[in-house]
Write a structure and sequence with these properties.
The protein has eight helices and two strands. The protein is mainly alpha-helical and 160 residues long. The chain has one domain. A two-stranded antiparallel sheet has the order 1-2.
Length: 160
Amino acid sequence: MHSPTFSGLTGIGEVSDGMIYRSLVEVTFAEARRILREGSAEERLLLPLRVGELLPDPRKAVAICVRLLSDLDPRIRANAVLGLSYAVRRQRCLDRDTVRPLLLRELAENRDFSGRIADALEDINLFMGWRLAEDRIARIRSGLDPSPERQGAGSQEDPL
């Protein structure tokens, strides 16, 4: 079992900050492929975090996260971007031509989780030496391009 670290934790329930944190559980590549094929939404939600942080081969983690970027669930896609940021911390292993359009699409279209995606993109930019969507990220940070997750649940305002 992996010992808890900041990036190796996931919120599950409630404590003082509203979340209970638990360590991510290691995953094999075979188990990750099984989850991709037939896993529940909860399993797919945690999969990019697990592989990005814990799968021994970061390139395989990237492949899994890229695949999860096509999931129908926006939470899973947002976590896939986060999983990519975890993987690049361990090895600078992203192909810009492959992931750039996927990351930019996710930031533009996944409005409910744009803050989480912006955080992950900042990390990817830092570790890869890129400058993807810096202006958009700055607008999200400044509140000029607020996401629904920062506005509060149920907001009907269209920030564009």
